[in-house]
Amino acid sequence: MSRYMVLGGFLGAGKTTAMIAFAEHFAAQGKTPAILVNDLGADNLVDGAYTGSAAPCCMDTITGGCICYQTQELVDKLRRFRDTSRADVIMSDIPGCGIGGLDHVYLTLAKNYPGEFDICPFVAVADPERLRMIMPENANINLPDEMSFLFDAQLREAEVILLNKIDTLSEEKLGECMDFLVKGYPNAKVFAVSAKTGEGIAAAADHIAGNRAELVHREIGYGGKEFIAAERRLSWYNRKFFAKCEAGRNVDGNEFITALFDKIRQGLKSANRNVPHLKAYASGAGKEFAKASLIGVDYDVAFDARFDSPQSDLRVILNARAACESEVLDFLMDGAVKATCRKFGMRCHVFFTECFGMTDEGND
Ligand SMILES: Nc1nc2c(ncn2[C@@H]2O[C@H](COP(=O)(O)OP(=O)(O)O)[C@@H](O)[C@H]2O)c(=O)[nH]1
Ligand SMILES: [Mg+2]
Fold this sequence. Notes:
Layout: E1 3-9, H1 15-28, E2 33-38, H2 46-54, E3 58-62, H3 71-83, E4 89-93, H4 101-112, E5 118-119, E6 123-126, H5 128-131, H6 147-157, E7 160-163, H7 171-184, E8 189-192, H8 201-209, H9 225-232, E9 234-245, H10 253-270, E10 274-283, E11 289-294, E12 302-305, E13 313-323, H11 326-343, E14 346-357
Parallel strand pairs: 1-4, 1-5, 1-6, 2-3, 2-4, 6-7, 7-8
Antiparallel strand pairs: 9-13, 9-14, 10-11, 10-13, 11-12
Helix pairs in contact: 10-11
The chain binds guanosine-5'-diphosphate and magnesium ion (MG).
């Protein structure tokens, strides 16, 4: 029987990076891991492209909505991983607000497909930088107040909390975060990890894969007033475009992405909006690709992969999950893409764009 685990957590907390790190760990143990990438929009996902390139395992996607509300498709994909790929550990993430999977995925699978999947403890990935908003320091991290509800609800829902990005923390700060999580969320087992460096990943992965979910409902206010208020603040933007130099010319693809992100950052900052997660995956004419992330307008652009050589053209997938109205986001993103292409002397062909608020028609 395949084991199945779901990782919840806020935008940019490190769910995708943690799934890839877990996959590396399981593969090194001789297991066959698989990753199911899930998102709300159409199939133009940075996470899908990046996981396909970077993870040592099979991967598939479910797009167009959360796995919480696509049980039949989820079960089809899980069965295919189990029966065709012979996967023994399957991982997937929860998009959107990053909560609700315990009821909508775990309890639904247990009730409607009893005995089919070995369900592991429910996981929340927490970014220490975001935790500052709900910790005693009550930090202003330039996100809407409504997000506090989500950060807390994610942790209350979890049976296992991964305090991620510990490579960025001092000993003192790590102690404070662990103390806060262990005392504040006594129903969860807390692991301190860095999905980036691999620290703590083996112990956390073995614990999750070696245990079973309790399969008991936890009251987290899903669907309530605070939940809806938080959802209303978030919008999704996905674009796929092709940027091409004039014949004989090249650009530095890493600089292109940095300039694009800076332009988006500027636009959002001047509109007093934010982007909890902005992601780009760009591939060139050859096999090289770059992937970058920004977890807010006040942070640095982080590259998970870079181009080593100049590129004559770039196929770019751009995903933003923003605290911004969808109309404003659409306008700003389009302007930033076009301005950046102009700056680099590239022609821009847009293949696909979608932009929606989480509570716009059809999405709530
Ligand atoms: N420093 C550091 N960065 C991390 C770690 N895990 C993830 N990141 C970075 O955080 C950003 C968001 O990670 P991602 O896995 O895409 O988050 P997701 O939205 O939860 O799937 C990326 O730039 C990652 O490289 C970590 O352990 N340490
Ligand atoms: Mg992700």
